Amino acid sequence: MTTQTIEKDSEQANRPSDLPESPVAISCRQISKTFYEPVKGSRSWKNGFLGRKRPLKAVDQVSFEVFQGEVFGLLGPNGSGKSTLIRLLSTLLLPDSGRLTVFGYDVSKDQHQIRRFINRVSVEASFFKKLSAMENLRYAARIYGLPQEEGREKALSILSRLGIDQEKAHTSLENLSRGMQQKVAIARALMTSPTLVLLDEPTTGLDPKSKRDVQEFVEEVMDTHDATIILTTHDMDEAERLCDRIAIIDHGQIVALDTPQGLKDHVGTNSMEEVFFRLTGKSWEDVLADENHE
To answer: What range(s) does the ABC transporter domain occupy (predicted)?
Structure first.
């Protein structure tokens, strides 16, 4: 199926109506990133048994802007480039070409400054598993320079808002469920009121109540903090509920960028899943199946 593209000016593509004067938080201009994978059967004595490598363009001349205070969604099938974009934004990877800035800092030159603004929550969170949720959060607070008492009070407040009671807060993480661990990861990311939060599939694996708790907490952060949020998710309802705008990425390129309602209006449907299928040629169920078999 031929990919359908919604043509937008990347600098002014449907700026959210509730952020009419917000400055640009992230500027991505013609960013590309290529990886190289070995070609099977290409090793021989002629090339020193190193073999040939095939280029794989994960991100292909991508341009977009994210405004301060915006919740910006990234949706795409497996291998589309969304995870590479998240790694570029967090300075874990550097672009091969183009220019990517975060709050005016260039990711290729100013990694240390950018990392001061960012906290990231990924689907596989890492902790000191022998320590409790409270101990992990207080440790994070000290790393970020918060006074001891302020760190304790903030940890208790965030855990309470996420529905984690006192008993669970003082239980070692290795004895908590996967869903509970993910809630602690989100609490840790929000301990220092970061300017940019990268939520990489934050509710994957959560039960319905935990998922709702996390979504409500993200909405609370949106209402009470001046944070910019980048969200990747496998939940279309979640994307529509939380995101001001959504970029759909496929084969390393953004094929559509608009508000959730704008995307549905363009395709002529009331379903975000139908939008995704029409723009990528792949059903959302197929995407989930691919991800589960990785």
So the answer is: 39-276
**7-17 pLDDT tens trace:** 444 444 566 66
The β-bridge relationship of strands 24-38 and 118-121 is: unpaired
User: CA-CA distance, 157 to 221, in Å (whole number)?
Assistant: 13
Q: Where are the domains of the chain?
A: 22-38+52-117+195-293, 126-193
d(CA 89, CA 268): 32
Contact 246, 252 (CB under 8 A): no
What's this model's pTM, rounded to 2 decimal places? 0.81
Predicted confidence (pLDDT) per residue in 73-109, tens digit:
999 887 888 889 999 999 999 999 999 999 999 999 9
Q: Spell out the CATH class of 22-38+52-117+195-293.
A: alpha beta
Kindly report the length of the chain.
294
